[in-house]
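Regression test case RT-17, inverse folding.

Input:
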């Protein structure tokens, strides 16, 4: 009689077997293509409690002992003021998946609401990032890893065009401007959200959807509403072109500046007229 595998073994096995093409291969492709990991790195895998960050943690955990490039891992979870139920959910999931998470506490929810009661989400996000960098550096890490996936990348680009009147992307690797020597990496950069959801459902896993108490209020949900609209836009485009997500993602790697009337680099705007006049 075959031995029944524990939930963490099933979840780990499925991401490298059943979903090898959809999850494991794109994960490895991102690590190599964008050179996310170098020898000697000590990476803080930052876990928010959602499906993306848990999958990222398990992928990095599985990769570490087999990696040709030696690196160390620290699993961090920041409690910015979660409810007892959400805090307990994170602790139970960490135990279920056998991920040795270190939880540290902050008062970000309260501080951001007090400082900016009308729209605390932007301030909260910046404060969370800063605390993660600081805690990671305190633990001897030189990188933090976040769980943004392919759909986050293309949705950000479309949202910036639709609502910000600019074409702005999301880099797979980014040096911190406030914490010298620290970098941010996004190991799920090439993985589609629908494949993460499929992996979650296949393993009957339940994660936090959104533990932020601000998003429960309609007036603080503007950005979430815009992202939902963008997701629906992409879904509608897929009905006509099944490859639209991959094409949008690929287009961000093939920007043809020669055909654009303007672009910004290093904070400075440039016009196509500069090239035109230089050729005269």
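Golden output:
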């Amino acid at each position: 009689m075959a031995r029944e595998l524990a939930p963490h073994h099933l979840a780990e096995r499925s991401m490298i077997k059943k979903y090898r093409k959809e999850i494991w291969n794109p994960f490895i492709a991102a690590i190599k293509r964008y050179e996310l990991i170098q020898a000697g790195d000590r990476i803080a895998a930052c876990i928010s409690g959602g499906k993306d960050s848990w999958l990222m943690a398990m992928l990095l955990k599985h990769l570490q002992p087999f990696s040709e490039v030696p690196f160390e891992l620290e699993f961090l979870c920041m409690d910015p003021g979660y409810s007892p139920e959400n805090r307990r959910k994170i602790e139970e999931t960490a135990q279920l998946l056998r991920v040795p998470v270190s939880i540290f506490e902050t008062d970000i929810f309260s501080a951001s609401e007090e400082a900016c009661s009308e729209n605390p989400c932007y301030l909260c996000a910046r404060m969370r990032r800063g605390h993660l960098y600081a805690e990671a550096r305190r633990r001897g890490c030189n990188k933090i890893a976040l769980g943004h996936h392919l759909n986050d990348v293309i949705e950000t680009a479309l949202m910036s065009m639709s609502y910000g009147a600019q074409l702005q992307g999301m880099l797979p690797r980014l040096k911190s401007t406030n914490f010298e020597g620290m970098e941010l990496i996004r190991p799920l950069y090439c993985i589609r959200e629908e494949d993460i959801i499929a992996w979650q459902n296949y393993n009957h896993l339940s994660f936090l959807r959104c533990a932020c108490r601000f998003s429960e209020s309609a007036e603080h949900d503007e950005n979430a509403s815009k992202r939902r609209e963008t997701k629906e836009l992409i879904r509608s485009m897929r009905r006509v072109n099944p490859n639209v997500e991959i094409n949008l993602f690929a287009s961000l790697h093939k920007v043809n500046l020669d055909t654009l009337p303007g672009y910004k680099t290093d904070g400075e705007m440039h016009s196509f007229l500069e090239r035109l006049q230089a050729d005269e």
